[in-house]
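In practice, a research group might receive sequence data for several interacting partners and want a quick structural hypothesis before committing to experiments. The following worked case mirrors that situation: the sequences arrive first, and a predicted assembly follows.
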Amino acid sequence: MIDTKAKILLFRFLVLLSGVVPALWLGWMWLSDSMGANPAETAVHFTGRTGLILLLVTIAFSPAFRLSGWVGIMIARRQMGLWAFFWLTAHMLTWMGWDQYWEWRWIWHDMWELEYIRYGLSGLLLLIPLALTSFRWAPEKMGWSAWHWLHRLIYVAAGLGVYHLWVLTRVDYLLPTAFAIVFLALVVFRVVDAILHRQ
Amino acid sequence: MPRYRYPSIPESEVTPKRLFEKRRRFLRQGVALGAASILPSGLLMPTKAEAWADEFKIQLKENMTRKDFAGDEGITDYGDATSYNNFYEFGTRKSDPEVYAHKLPTDPWSVRVEGEFNLTGDIAFEDILQRYSLEERIYRLRCVEAWSMVIPWIGFPLRELIKHHDPTSKAKYIEFEAIHDPEKLRGQQRSIIEWPYREALRMDEAMHPLTMIAVGMYGEKMPNQNGAPMRLVVPWKYGFKSIKSVTVIRALEQKPKTSWEEQNPEEYGFFANVNPNVDHPRWSQARERRIGEPGRRETLMFNGYAEEVAHLYEGMDLQRHH
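A structural hypothesis for the assembly, expressed as tokens:
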């Protein structure tokens, strides 16, 4: 029998892996020269997808906790959220540095001119206060209620992220549809859960 | 990054080892054929596919001229040009065509020439190869998705074919249809666009000397994923105009609807001329990523062919007729 503490430790380790393994995978692709003909695009897509998946997984921790009642999920949620933030930040930096080659004139131009860049960037901006208030003492300092309200921004950020992917997709909507369905399911669960618990 | 490849000797000046060996094999086959003529027939005959591959090579070795229309910008790596493709007949990922294009049934291949031509009918691909003399042309290729390559195509001007089939006075447009075979082409099992893929040019565009039918690239016959056995190449238009694996060439009086126009007329206009000043509704066309290069290049008006083609569009509102 594994005791609860060990189980929690194991789960936190799994969350750690989900943040680190994509980096190893990307590093392996780079070293084995399998980034394809357009490595900048490959890197931008890879970081973006990883970030969005981890963001949706972070949101899914809440229903997972509601359904299972296991406390380990809530303990590891913060770490998962930070990994999502890490990958989405990497996504932005890969776009700016590798894809745009730090050409600020054009980065600036695209930020204002292109709809999908605006949605993506605003989603990431919304995550910054969440990352900043992810320290253990933050909820107590700012009050649990305020902290909870602030952290509901993750839904807005994820929605913007999914819409960002939707807008830039060309013709084949299989992937963005999958992301959208997962996102909407999570929103519906959250809303229904809130209504039921208020009664 | 191991990119930036500027070959010091033009690639076509060097006979690729593979080609050299095939040429040897062809000579041996010639000897074998000579022997076959006095032996029971059918014993040593090369297959039809081999025969036209060899015909192709004879033309390549003996008659070919090379013209560089890309201002010495450096030819894109062959591996990149054959592994990063938009050929939705095989799937929407860039890597799909390379993986699945071996299923493309290229032999036998014929093209139906129909509509407002005086000379119509089904033409075997071998006959097309024999009828027109091949040349090599290095063109920029600019995709509507803001990436680009430089490709050494092998082919002949489309105008030669049009002239041969003698269009009637009603012929104002040339329409093309690509292969339709959902059983072999997995991408056609999903109706993301209406199959078969259709493209069209105005007659003056089709007759322009830069417009070509390509049957090969990089000194070889056309790889399947790049549109074997024959495709259109219109270097001043976005890549989607250059329809692959053509099966029908049709002269028309009325302007036809193309596949992309039907799919989304706002985003993919009929003309689709490369134009850095007219953005795609969702992304910028001002710059492009040249595959194999870091950073981005500024996109040239008509993809750098303004001198040759700008007169075709004089007086037209290029914003509206994008």
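Before designing any experiment, note the following. The interface with chain B takes residues 33, 36-41, 99-101, 103, 106, 109-110, 113-116, 167-168, 170-172 of chain A (CB under 8 Å). The radius of gyration of chain A is 18 Å.
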